[in-house]
Amino acid sequence: MKKFKKFVCAVLVAAVSACAVPTYQADAASISQLQQKRQNLASSTKKAKQEIANIKNKKLSAEQEMEAMDKVLTSIQAELDEATEDLNILTKQLEEAEKALQEATEKRDAQFALLGSRMRFLQQKGSSGYLEILFDAQSFSDLFLRMQYVNDIMGYDKEILEELEETQRTIEKKKKEIEKNKAEQEEVVKLQKEKLAEQQEIVNEKKALVASYQNDLSKYEQMVAANEKADKAVLNQIAKQQHRMQCTDGRHGAEGYRTGQGPDEDEVLDLLKKTRYGK
User: Fold this and answer.
1) Of 250, 255, 254, 258, which is closest to residue 24 (Cα–Cα)?
2) Distance between CA atoms of 80 and 96, rounded to whole angstroms?
3) Which stretches of 25-99 are assigned E, i.e. beta strand?
4) Does the pLDDT value for residue 16 go beyond 70?
5) Whole-number Å distance between alpha carbons of 248 and 251
6) Number of other CB atoms surrounding residue 265 within 10 Å
7) What contacts 234, CB < 8 A, 6 or more positions away?
8) Of the given ranges (61-75, 90-104, 135-149), which has the lowest mean pLDDT?
9) Burial of 276 (0-12, 13-18, 19+ CB in 10 A)
10) Is 263 helix (H, G, I), strand (E, B) or coil?
């Protein structure tokens, strides 16, 4: 019975040793290399995570700065819109002033032409023309009215002409004021546009910086994910190597059993359990 048990143990040990490889030392060295690889991956992952934290802080700071710059940009745009609206009003006022000046000039010229024609008439007729108007009077009262009429016409023409010239001078003065205000407002609009362009350039640079941070962040996150995946693969390789080494231990046990130095029944059963359950 005792011999039968020893025979069974030998068979079982031989079965376990069937999966073993003759490169026990090589497997041990391979496991050491794999473990070193895991350490390298862990170190790389640690550095990548540190970079991720650093980049996130920089990105957050840049985003906050960009948000503040956007508010400034919005404020400048509002100022530019207001300045442009004021410029449009001045442009319209200038157009109206130019139109009014043109009309006043035409009226003045027309009145001046009328007055000139009357004066030329009297000059051509001389004193006889003036006397002719008076001598045509039918009565003394009519004479008086004719004299008053001639004086009134001459005075009215002169008064109208003076009023038109005053109106023209006022419009010209107003026109010059509007032209000056418009020129100043155009300069304001120009400066606001330049200010807006400068601020927009700063915002664009900050946006590019944020995008760069995001790109770097994605690269490091991908690196971490790749390292974690590689680490799992290395762990799987280590497990396989350890399993092969257990099988090699079983083979050595079988040889020892044949020479009388092998494991007893309890050791064989324990070896089988380790091989089966990976413990």
Assistant:
1) 250
2) 24
3) none
4) no
5) 5
6) 12
7) 34, 37, 38, 41
8) 135-149
9) exposed
10) coil
Give the chain's length.
279
Q: What is the amino acid identity at position 15?
A: A
Residue 99 to residue 241: CA distance in whole angstroms: 99
Alpha-carbon distances of 37 from 31, 50, 265, rounded to whole Å = 10, 20, 39
Write out the two tokens for 250: 């079983």
In this structure, what DSSP letter does residue 22 have?
S
Q: Which residues contact 166 (CB under 8 A, 6 or more apart)?
A: none
Residue 196 has pLDDT above 70, yes or no: yes
Distance CA 80, CA 161 (A): 45
Residues 111-130: tens digit of each pLDDT: 777 777 766 655 555 544 55
pLDDT of residue 245: 81
Residue 137, by phi and psi: left (phi above 0), alpha (psi -120 to 50) or beta? beta
- In the block, residue with structure tokens 């606001």: 192
